[in-house]
């Protein structure tokens, strides 16, 4: 059986070689070794053909039924490596991840396409950017089972290496993990590439962002959580976050100027379609599927999110540094100046669910003695017709006494007692800053900060 497979692979490789070079020689006029050597030379040329090098979507190994509470997540998550293969047999590599101490490192070593039942890409001398993944010795937090390391590969079977390749598909020789390489732009500077990628990840997949995302695949909608960790968790909208959760390794990278996200494994839908790779579209602030443009990853509905965020006993905060316009800008400034006349300083205004008083608008200030104090005013809140509506009810305790001393404070409470449409301040992927626009007058708006 092994000999049959070996011969079939040689024939397939030879046919690929023949179709690319337009030669008409009978493949049976050549020995198996000659065929493999020709294919290896051809694949070597194609690897070295990229003037900017390649982005390698590297996954060390696969753990079936991965459990993050038991298994080592660093074995299954992805690592983006960069490699520039030179015709002299040297390769320049770079990476920035937890293995490199989250700092950019680069190294130069040797590479070759060897023959072993087919062409195999081998990083034949030690390189600090790939061999640490294959070291068996314990490597600190990266290894929960002593002596196993990350169980990665440094030799890869070359499965698909087309002419003028945009992508090359590899498979780990030992672990069997699929690895894709994508062509980088000419003259790509590796350090600058990672700096740019860090900025994009920080903007769209900030692990400290309060909101989850939504992935829509036709009739299927999934919540997306932990996009800033390297292991996305998804579960059906309306499902159970624990019982229905699926952990999906993924990588982000830049290709042809696009910011992209690609899951290690394609998501298979009931109709037979798949979703695996998405590209960010700045115009609509959404990732669209490459397999189907209607497949999307986007931020949540801002109105529903703000409503649920406050309901879940979090806070939204408004202060003097917050962007604002129209009436909302004027009322805050008037309240600030009202406190200043008393030699006090207005710190911020928050809307939150107080454990004792329910939903309140809390006004925080500092006295002339430097101590902090608060005033609380009871509100109600509802979500309807694509907007969040707040309604002022009454002061809590003695907070009403201040309304006579600072009349502008009542003006602010009345201005907040209104319907607002919530929207992104910068991007729907991070609603830490959220714009609230008056439903009655779009010129009246203010930006709040969402606080845990």
Reconstruct the topology from this structure.
Layout: H1 2-21, H2 32-47, E1 54-58, H3 73-76, E2 79-85, E3 90-95, E4 105-110, E5 112-115, E6 119-122, E7 155-160, E8 167-172, E9 178-183, H4 190-204, E10 213-217, E11 220-225, E12 231-236, E13 246-255, E14 258-268, E15 274-281, E16 286-289, E17 296-298, H5 302-311, E18 315-318, E19 324-325, H6 326-341, E20 345-354, E21 358-366, E22 372-384, E23 387-395, H7 401-405, H8 407-416, E24 419-424, E25 433-438, E26 445-451
Antiparallel strand pairs: 1-2, 1-9, 2-3, 3-4, 5-6, 6-7, 7-8, 8-9, 10-11, 10-17, 11-12, 12-13, 13-14, 14-15, 15-16, 16-17, 18-20, 18-26, 19-26, 20-21, 21-22, 22-23, 23-24, 24-25, 25-26
Helix pairs in contact: 1-2, 6-8
The helix tally amounts to: 8
Question: Spans with pLDDT under 50 lasting ≥5 residues?
Answer: 1-24
Q: What's the end-to-end separation, in Å?
A: 61 Å
Strand portion:
35-45%
Strand adjacency order, main sheet: 4-3-2-1-9-8-7-6-5
Number of domains: 3
Sheet with most strands: 9 strands, antiparallel
Count of DSSP strands:
26
Based on CA inertia axes, which overall geometry fits? elongated
The gyration radius over C-alpha positions equals 29 Å
Keywords: Signal
Protein name: DUF4302 domain-containing protein
Pfam family, one: DUF4302
InterPro entries: DUF4302
């Amino acid at each position: 059986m092994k000999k049959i497979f070996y011969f079939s692979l040689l024939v397939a490789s030879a046919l690929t070689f023949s179709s690319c070079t337009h030669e008409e020689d009978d493949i049976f006029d050549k020995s198996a070794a000659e065929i493999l050597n020709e294919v290896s030379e051809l694949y070597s040329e194609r690897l070295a053909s990229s003037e900017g090098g390649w982005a390698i979507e590297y996954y060390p190994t696969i753990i079936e039924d991965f459990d993050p509470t038991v298994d080592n997540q660093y074995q299954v998550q992805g690592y983006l490596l960069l490699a520039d293969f030179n015709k002299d047999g040297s390769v320049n590599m770079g990476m920035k991840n937890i293995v490199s101490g989250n700092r950019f490192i680069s190294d130069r070593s040797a590479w070759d396409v060897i023959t072993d039942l087919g062409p195999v890409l081998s990083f034949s001398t030690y390189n600090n950017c790939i061999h640490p993944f294959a070291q068996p010795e314990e490597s600190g937090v990266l290894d929960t089972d002593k002596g196993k390391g990350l169980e990665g590969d440094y030799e890869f079977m070359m499965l698909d290496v087309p002419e003028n390749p945009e992508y090359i598909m590899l498979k780990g020789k030992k672990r069997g993990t699929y690895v894709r390489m994508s062509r980088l732009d000419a003259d790509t500077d590796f350090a600058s590439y990672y700096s740019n990628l860090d900025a994009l990840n920080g903007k769209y997949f900030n692990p400290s962002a309060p909101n989850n995302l939504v992935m829509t695949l036709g009739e299927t909608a999934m919540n997306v959580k932990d996009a800033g960790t390297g292991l996305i968790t998804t579960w059906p909208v309306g499902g159970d976050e624990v019982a229905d959760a699926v952990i999906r390794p993924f990588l982000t990278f830049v290709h042809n100027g696009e910011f992209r996200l690609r899951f290690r494994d394609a998501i298979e839908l009931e109709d037979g379609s798949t979703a695996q790779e998405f590209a960010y579209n700045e115009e609509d602030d959404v990732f669209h599927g490459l397999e189907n443009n209607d497949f999307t990853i986007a931020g949540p509905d801002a109105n529903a999110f703000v409503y649920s965020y406050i309901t879940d006993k979090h806070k939204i905060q408004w202060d003097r540094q917050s962007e604002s316009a129209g009436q909302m800008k004027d009322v805050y400034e008037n309240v600030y100046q009202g406190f200043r006349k008393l030699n006090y300083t207005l710190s911020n205004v928050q809307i939150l669910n107080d454990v004792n008083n329910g939903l309140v608008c809390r006004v925080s200030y500092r006295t002339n003695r430097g101590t902090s104090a608060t005033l609380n005013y009871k509100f109600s809140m509802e979500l309807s017709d694509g907007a969040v509506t707040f309604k002022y009810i009454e002061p809590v305790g003695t907070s009403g006494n201040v309304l006579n001393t600072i009349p502008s404070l009542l003006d602010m409470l009345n201005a907040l007692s209104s319907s607002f449409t919530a929207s992104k301040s910068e991007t729907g992927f991070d609603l830490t800053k959220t714009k609230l626009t008056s439903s009655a007058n779009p010129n009246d708006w203010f930006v709040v900060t969402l606080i845990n």
